[in-house]
């Protein structure tokens, strides 16, 4: 079996058979909004190349009509291409270039749209991730965005598209899902250690300063007036204690506690 990077030389007959097979797999359904935009984009690119060729050839006839070439390259019917281009022409005649902004496209990415995040941010999901991260850290296991992604997939909160060949995950879609999980974790307040150093937490520093100040003030009192001191686990005081180098940890650390005698 040839490697993925190996070039396989195809005969014209094989190429025609592949094109026919792909066209049949696509089906005869109505074009989606994104597919319509793709048809129009290819049409306009071919039209631009057609005008450039005519300019260079000083008005001589070019090879083939633009709509026929677009239909052939995209594997759609000629009537479909002509119908979509007629729709674009009508829109341009009535509203000009600005009329393109009135087109509505589903699943469009960009700053102008607000789409649901790939990782649900419901209380249930946040609670499940929190409990999972805590459990993994308490067990001394490595926990990063990769492990969180596997956890979310296991509980069907995140889906990853299978590869075109059906032999695993689509690498690009899995990478996109991982980036979505990383954004989710940052927004939820999780941090990652770097070379055994956990990022400073302002709230943590304030609580530590308050703890030390009250601890010192208690020591200055006469013995019969001192409050009983409760010594905390070392991991409360030293932020670098017992931390995996790259594991996640919560931003909201546990507060210091003191009890009266």
From TrEMBL:
* The organism's place on the tree of life at top rank: Eukaryota
Q: What is this protein called?
A: Uncharacterized protein
Q: Which organism is it from?
A: Salpingoeca rosetta (strain ATCC 50818 / BSB-021)
